[in-house]
Design a protein that fits this description.
Blueprint: H1 3-14, H2 24-40, H3 45-61, H4 70-86, E1 100-105, H5 112-125, E2 130-134, H6 142-153, E3 156-157, H7 165-178, E4 183-187, H8 196-209, E5 213-219, H9 224-236, E6 241-245, H10 254-263, E7 267-271, E8 279-281, H11 284-292, H12 298-322, H13 325-337, H14 342-345, H15 359-370, H16 374-378, H17 385-395, H18 399-415, H19 419-427
Parallel strand pairs: 1-4, 1-5, 2-3, 2-4, 5-6, 6-7
Antiparallel strand pairs: 7-8
Helix pairs in contact: 1-2, 2-3, 3-4, 4-11, 5-6, 9-10, 13-15, 15-17, 17-18
The protein binds guanosine-5'-diphosphate and magnesium ion.
C-alpha cells in the first residue's frame, strides 16, 4: 500500500539525517528530489506545488538547532503540511430525525455496491438499523448483487418489482419510518464514463431523495482520474464526501493526498479490500504517518516542543542580561495598559507579592528614568547616593522614590529568570 510514495518520502527525509544542521542548500536539493517523488506518485500538480512551497517556507523559517537533527525538523514540517492538505477527520452526518439517508455515486466498477454493504456493516456495528436500496434498475444483476450483499451483512433490503426509481424511493422512505430504520443507503447506477445524461439522472435522483450525505465512491487506483471524476460530480451533482476504494491495491496514494485540496470535498472512508470488513474511517493523521513511514509522531512532536522551549529560555536569559531601565520602563507601561501586574502574577509560584504599578506611579517612574543619563539607564548599579539626589531633584521626586524604582527594577530582573513568568510574559507580548 502506497509503497512508492512511502519509500520516496523516506529517501527524502534520509537526505537530511546525516548532516549536522538544516541548511538552505540541503532544503533546496531535498525539495527538488521531493518534487519528483510527488509527481511520480500521481499527486496533483497544484497539491504538489502547495506542499513544496509550504515545506520550503517552513524549513527556511526553522532555525538550525543543534539538539535536533535536520531530519527530525523536516519530518515535523512535512507531517504538518501533509495534514494541512489532507484536512481533519470528517465524520458522517446524522439526521436529527431518522432515517439518515446516504446516496452513493460513482462510475461503474468503482465499488459502489460493495461499499453499500461495507457502510451498512460499519453502521450496524455501531448499533444502527440499516436499509439498502438498489436504484440501478436497468443493469441486470445489479439488484441481485446488492440483495446478496445485504444478506451477507444482515442488513434490511428494500426492492419492489415494476416500480420506477422515484416510486421506489418513496416506498423505501415510508418503509423506513414504519420499521425504525436509522440509515438508508442508496446504491445508484453508474456507467463506465461520465456523460451528461447520467449526471442529470443522478441529480434528479438526488433531488428526490434529499440525502444527508452524497458520497462519491472513487477508486484510488485511477490516480488523478478519480480526482477529475470527483470534480465533475461535485459540480454537476453535488457531494458531501468521498469514499476512496481499492486503497489496498498498488494505489500510489496521490489521489488520496490530492482529493480534499483540489475538490474541497473530504474523504470520509476508505475501502481496503474485497471483504465487507475491509473498510474504515479515513484518518489523515494515520495516513500521513503511514506514507511517511512513521510509527509514532507524538514522541517527536514532544521532543521538538521541548527543544524549542529550551531555545526560547536561552533567548530570555540573554534578554535578561541586556535588561536595563529603558526596557524596564517600556515594560511597566505595557503592564499598566494590561490592567496592572498583581492580578497577572498572583497565581505564579516564586513571584513576590506587593509588586504593582498604577498610572501615577508610571508617570513618576518615567520622570525618574528620564532624569538619568544614558549610562545610568544602561547600568543602574552605578547610581550612588549623590546621583540619586541629582535624579530626584531633576524629576521632582524624592530619593525614596528613586530607591523604590531601583528596587523594583532589581526585582524585575530577578524575576526574568522565572520560567513560568517568562512564559506568561511572552504570551502577553512583554518579552
Ligand atoms: P460498482 O460497479 O461501483 O457497484 O462496483 P462493485 O461494488 O461491483 O465493485 C467492483 C469490484 O471492485 C468488485 O470486484 C469488488 O470486489 C471490488 N472492490 C470494491 N471495493 C474494493 C476495495 O476496497 N478493494 C479491493 N481490492 N477491491 C474492491
Ligand atoms: Mg454496482
Amino acid at each position: 500500500m502506497f509503497e512508492k510514495i512511502s519509500s520516496g518520502i523516506r529517501e527524502f527525509l534520509d537526505r537530511f539525517g546525516r548532516r549536522g544542521l538544516l541548511t538552505k542548500r540541503d532544503i533546496e536539493d531535498g525539495l527538488e528530489f521531493f518534487k519528483k517523488i510527488l509527481i511520480s506518485s500521481d499527486v496533483n500538480i497544484k497539491v504538489a506545488k502547495e506542499i513544496l512551497r509550504r515545506v520550503k517556507k517552513e524549513a527556511e523559517k526553522e532555525k538550525s538547532l543543534k539538539s535536533l537533527l535536520p531530519q527530525e525538523q523536516m519530518t515535523k514540517i512535512l507531517y504538518d503540511e501533509l495534514i494541512r492538505v489532507l484536512g481533519k477527520t470528517y465524520p458522517l452526518k446524522i439526521s436529527s430525525i431518522p432515517p439518515t439517508e446516504i446516496i452513493l455515486f460513482g462510475i461503474q466498477g468503482s465499488g459502489k455496491t460493495t461499499t453499500s454493504g461495507k457502510l451498512a456493516l460499519y453502521l450496524q456495528k455501531k448499533g444502527y438499523r440499516v436499509l439498502l436500496v438498489p436504484l440501478d434498475l436497468k443493469r441486470p444483476g445489479a439488484i441481485d448483487q446488492l440483495r446478496e450483499i445485504s444478506e451477507k451483512v444482515e442488513s434490511k433490503f428494500f426492492f419492489e418489482e415494476n416500480e420506477n426509481v422515484y416510486s421506489l424511493i418513496k416506498k423505501a422512505k415510508s418503509f423506513s419510518k414504519k420499521n425504525g430504520i436509522d440509515f438508508i443507503i442508496y446504491d445508484t447506477p453508474g456507467r463506465l464514463h461520465i456523460d451528461k445524461e447520467m449526471m442529470q439522472e443522478l441529480k434528479d435522483i438526488k433531488d428526490e431523495i434529499k440525502p444527508k450525505e452524497s458520497l462519491l465512491v472513487a477508486s484510488s487506483l485511477l490516480g488523478q482520474g478519480s480526482v477529475d471524476i470527483a470534480l465533475e460530480f461535485k459540480r454537476k451533482v453535488g457531494l458531501t464526501g468521498i469514499i476512496a476504494t481499492k486503497v489496498d491495491g498498488d494505489s500510489k496514494g496521490g489521489a488520496i493526498l490530492s482529493m480534499k485540496f483540489v475538490t474541497g470535498v473530504p474523504i470520509k472512508f476508505i475501502g481496503t479490500g474485497e471483504k465487507m470488513e475491509d473498510f474504515s474511517e479515513f484518518d489523515p493523521e494515520s495516513f500521513a504517518r503511514r506514507i511517511m513511514g512513521l510509527g509514532d509522531i507524538k514522541g517527536l512532536i514532544k521532543k521538538i516542543e521541548r527543544v524549542k522551549e529550551e531555545e526560547r529560555e536561552k533567548i530570555t536569559l540573554k534578554k535578561r542580561e541586556r535588561f536595563d531601565l529603558n526596557l524596564f520602563l517600556s515594560q511597566m507601561e505595557t503592564i499598566e495598559k494590561m490592567g496592572g501586574f498583581s492580578s497577572l502574577i498572583s497565581h505564579i509560584p516564586g513571584i513576590p507579592t506587593g509588586f504593582n504599578v498604577d498610572e501615577k506611579e508610571i508617570k513618576r517612574m518615567k520622570a525618574i528614568v528620564q532624569s538619568m543619563t544614558k549610562q545610568e539607564r544602561r547600568h543602574p548599579e552605578i547610581i550612588d547616593g549623590s546621583r540619586k539626589r541629582r535624579i530626584a531633584l531633576g524629576s521632582g521626586t524624592s530619593v525614596n522614590d528613586v530607591n523604590k524604582l531601583l528596587k523594583n527594577f532589581k526585582m524585575m530582573k530577578q524575576m526574568m529568570g522565572n520560567k513560568n513568568l517568562n512564559k506568561m510574559m511572552r504570551r502577553g507580548g512583554l518579552l
